[in-house]
Amino acid sequence: MLAYIVRRVLYAIPILVGVNLITFLLFFIVNTPDDMARMQLGTKRVTPDAIEKWKTDHGYDQPLLWNAKEKSLTKTIFFEKSVRLFVFDFGAAEDGRDIANEIATRMWPSLALAIPVFLVGLAVNITFAMLMAFFRASYLDFWGVVLCVAMMSISALFYIIGGQYVASKVWHLVPISGYDAGLGAVKFLVLPALIGVVAGIGSGGRWYRTLFLEEMSRDYVRTARAKGLAESAVLFRHVLKNAMIPILTGAVVVIPLLFMGSLLSESFFGIPGLGSYTIDAIQAQDFAVVRSMVFIGSLLYIAGLLLTDLSYTLVDPRIKLE
Fold it and tell me: Tens digits of per-residue pLDDT, 72-104?
């Protein structure tokens, strides 16, 4: 297993380099260093000297990918800005604030929102799917699938805006946006967490229902029924256990990404997490923050895939990692 883990870690290096290269190209296709300088200087009537000074101070006075004068790949913006990421040196944002400190601070509001949405959503989706599978080919199953399709067809923005309007503006149950430290954050997190759970019921319920119905058509389920086991015992003791591998595939891979937060929810509800941090950086054309967040997201996604493979061995001892 150790050799497998080492091999997967080595495979991750070219993937991270490729992700950084694509992010770099996409960002600088839209924004040139001169555009970034004008944005950060805060005025449209800046002088060419001020732009050149800003580019020199922030390390954007080099060529993008290839330095023709030096005939070098290292004396470029891409190399100088990307290599440090692999030793987790994120540097400073364009406004001077330390990115690593911002990530460490904003990570906790993101987790405070993402963990309840993940745990409650997983429990609700599995329970709803098992209910539809238990009453398969009935009116409950039919209308449950219709409800899932309808909820999948609705944009997440509708849930957010509708939830804010009804719960905050009409009923005045919770604040419409904001955040507070400690237990004071609960009143600000209830609504976005509830909306996150509800918005995921459609896709999650349908997916888990498909998994359970596929397992219920296998030979071991027919054998269990032939032995006289009740349908509830078959579903909970056999089907759920054998469906754990695909469930883990969808659940474990998401766990590391919980640190990244929700882009939409954090922005609309004013939660100072990593999701809103990323949106603000994109709007401000802050490439230092954007590349750092994309790098962390890629790294966490790779870690999630590795954790998924390792969790297979815990659920099914027959699986061996070589």
Answer: 888 888 888 888 888 888 888 878 889 999 999
